[in-house]
Amino acid sequence: MSKITTELLLERAVPRSTRLRKIETLNLSKLQLKTGDLDPRLFSRLRHLQKLDLSDNLLDKFPNSLTLPDLRVLNCSNNKLEDVTALKQFPLLEELTYENNVYLTLNDDYKVMFLLENLRLLNGKDITKLANHVRRVNSQKLTSKVTAHWEKFFRDQLPEKYTAEQVKAIKKKFLKSVQTNVVYGPSSLSEFTRWRVKMIAEEFLSCSLGLELNSDTEPEEKMDETEEEESTESPREAAEDVAQVTVTPSKRKRNHSKSGAGNKRSKSRANTEEMAEDVSAEPLHFLQCHSKGNSHEDFKTQLWSCVFEPVLDSGARKDPIVSSSKTVATCGGESVCLIDCETGTVLKKYKVATEEFFSVAWTTLTMVITDSRRKAHNILAAAGRRGIVKLIHVAADFCYGEIKAHKKPIATVCFSPTQETHLFTASYDKRIALWDIGIPDCDYNFKASQLLVLEAVSIPLRIALVPTCPEQYLLAGCEGGCFAWNIKLDKGQKSRPFEAIFQFPDDESMTTSHRVDGLAFLNDDVVVSKSSKPGCIYLWSWSRSFDAKGKGCQRTVSAVILAELEWSVTDMSYLTLSTCPAKDYVFCGDEKGSVWMYNLSNYTTAWSSPKGKRSERRISPTQILKWPELRLNGEQPPEILVNNVVSDPAFSYLVVLTSVNITAIWKKS
């Protein structure tokens, strides 16, 4: 029987606790614990544990699934540890102590520095600079050597058409050769070097050459110990990971409301639902491409963000109607996918096993390729729970860098429309940072720098640059309201408080205190925002609400409301909205899988007038796209929330991201 019980954990909490999920600091030292005493099922309930002391025990290794997602400090000194690679399951770890484990060597120190990207202190010493060297310079040197070894000795051995047996044979031969012959650094680090070389070589075979590695007969446990944390899948591999969900488009799921006092829907909404039967878009594809571990049984991974890839033709980019391709980037769980909306093909898939991605954004950089020639390339930024921004050169299938932007999760990111290297990151640390990501050279060397920090009083959820002055003002929808900052870089102040907070109608009065979880511009002036007030989306004027000449910081201003859009009566948060400015459309999903669409082209002219009056009645949706009848493994799916819905600039496709790991693509009829 395990020595660790619920009662023991509660008693050893610092301070003592009554609930496992409330424990942040836990002392389990000097209990003669062995590895088998660490029950993953029990530890999985310690969701908020940040500090864990396991010193002076008898542990020889860590179980692979302790599930401590918020662990920051770990002390496992004076044990019998023989291996450290299982520590990669604690990606947020900042301080680690494992002194007096006689089987651990300098090689294990280097493995830990590579695996734990947030690690600052190892055995009491600041290892930040050394760790950066290990992760970047060391990895770059070894990658170059591995690639050169393949080109020199093995490239010509692979026939144009090869069988699975040939792949298996050449892989085995290459891995053995490269680990023997690629040497770098002092001999005291030879074990670490062989460990990294094998990782890099396997990734090289898989990603660069498209050679499958799963034909290997090595034990699964050994593969887990050495597999690369990040991976890029070829189109063929990505396609194999995707489950097409059975759909019956002709039968649309109806949300029958119960009669009586509990029905809060207005008559106008009921009429709208009847009108919505004439649907202008048809379901095209339903994809399950973000599954954890590529499991087709995963209907729990939440999908959060999607954005269409811009076209590279500079002439076409000036026209918003043709400023995107049919390719959309989506993110959720451990992966980012690139999907062709017309065919439903997953073109590329990028995974980080310890990440949960919340946001993606595109920019186009003019990069030097060879012979000083310059060429435009699309770069994708992806960020999430770990507070790290990944920079991906999509055409090259290569994540060339990362920015450790925040110590807490990043809720959303966006690029400046005028400065292609300027990236905004909004984090749970209540800060919005502006970064210059630089332009990588032909060897993908780049230098990122922080230009500005905007201090928020609550967590920023959505951000939007003001279209008429994107280099001067930024809006943010936060947990505690809607705020504006002056982001002009010629001001001396690098860290800035908000300049204005907007107040909105709340029953009979005005209030600033509400969660704003949806925010976007419909055109140069009209802002669309969704707050915690059920059943309502506000449209308001930026220019008439915010006086740029106003004096004073942190002032309260009233949003000049132009109209209210009727929406679901749910009080569920984080179902965000989007706009299609070229077509005057607003989109927002709801808690029942439906997409509410508002064509506002008949209103925008009146709103553009300096004295344009507020629309007296709530504007009903033009159409509501009902969630089709789906069968997941032969059964109806559980509750479906639409977390996000985005159209391309021409409104040819509508991409719907859900709470059940399904990406739905609709095509306008």
Automatic annotation (TrEMBL):
Protein name, entry field: Leucine-rich repeat and WD repeat-containing protein 1
SUPFAM superfamilies documented for this protein: L domain-like (SSF52058), WD40 repeat-like (SSF50978)
Name of the gene encoding the protein in the UniProt record: Lrwd1
Region feature Disordered, mapped onto this chain: 215-277
GO cellular component entries: centrosome; chromosome, telomeric region; kinetochore; nuclear origin of replication recognition complex
Stretches assigned to the Leucine-rich repeat and WD repeat-containing protein 1 WD domain: 280-668
The organism's place on the tree of life at top rank: Eukaryota
Domain Leucine-rich repeat and WD repeat-containing protein 1 LRR: 7-200
Major localization listed first in the record, in broad terms: nucleus
Annotated organism of origin: Formicarius rufipectus
WD repeat locations: 403-437
Molecular function via GO: chromatin binding
Family to which the UniProt record says this protein belongs: Belongs to the LRWD1 family.
Biased composition (Acidic residues): 215-232
